[in-house]
Amino acid sequence: MASYLVTGASRGIGLELTKQLLQLPASQVGKVFALTRNELSAPLRDLLNKTPDRAFHITASVDDSDGVQRAARDVEAKLESQGLDVLINNAGTQSISPGGTKTATPEQLVHVFDVNVVGPQRMISAFLPLLHAGRQKKVINISSSVGSIAWAEKFKAVPAPAYKISKAGLHMLTTQYAMEYAQAGFTFLCVSPGWLKTELGGEGADFDVEVGVTELKRIILESSKEKNGKFLNIHVPGYEKALGQYDGGEVPW
């Protein structure tokens, strides 16, 4: 019975992932902690009410260090002397700069970095003791292929330089942890869930959120220590040659 914590669980990818995890048998997924920065959204409240013995709401914003520390204490209490198996850093933000990188203001860069890079750092450092005590010891950082430096040219038209830069930074953060904690049995992964029709992704995205999250869930469940330090893509048959190259392989850094 593995335990999971999902940040950014009030909507989009985080909400759907929480839902799909709770659809798995209790023998596979024992507890799911849904972390949101505000009070419960109506869809998340409905979901948690259906499984009150397995699903728990935790309030914290990933850009608030004290709040994240309190969240770690709350989760520890609810785990009842057991460890946390899987931390999924999904919460994120982006800003649009149609005029190019030169128009991305310092304030935009600082804010996006604080949520997309420092936020996962806050979560990982606060929850490392619980992850050490867990059996699976997995940390999944939700990223994007637009943060790939090797693929920068083909995503040149995406007008979100601060977002791209922050995801490249998240990749290095993941790599650092993967190297430092490999001997302790950890698995640190970056996963691109694809361009999905969420509030952040917009209606013009490639897939409905259920499609990307189903693949994301598969990657999380199948991941092992042999995948430590990888940047993985989802696989959607028929879309292997699409711009996002959804072939289930590794995304180049």
Give a brief description.
The protein has 253 residues and is of the alpha/beta class.
Rounded Rg: 17 Å
The percentage of residues in β strands lies in 5-15%
What sequence of helices (H) and strands (E) makes up the elements? EHEHEHEHEHEHE
Mean pLDDT rating: 95
Residue stretches low in confidence (pLDDT < 50, at least 5 long) are none
Could you characterize what this model shows?
This protein is an alpha/beta fold and 253 residues long. It contains six helices and seven strands. It has a seven-stranded parallel β-sheet, with helices on both faces. Strand 5, helix 5 and strand 6 form a beta-alpha-beta unit. Helix 3 packs parallel to helix 4 and helix 4 packs parallel to helix 5. The two termini are 33 Å apart.
Q: Strands, helices and their partners?
A:
Layout: E1 2-7, H1 12-22, E2 29-36, H2 42-50, E3 55-59, H3 65-79, E4 86-89, H4 106-133, E5 138-142, H5 161-180, E6 187-192, H6 209-222, E7 231-233
Parallel strand pairs: 1-2, 1-4, 2-3, 4-5, 5-6, 6-7
Helix pairs in contact: 1-6, 3-4, 4-5
Any descriptors?
253 residues, 15% strand, 7-stranded parallel beta sheet, globular
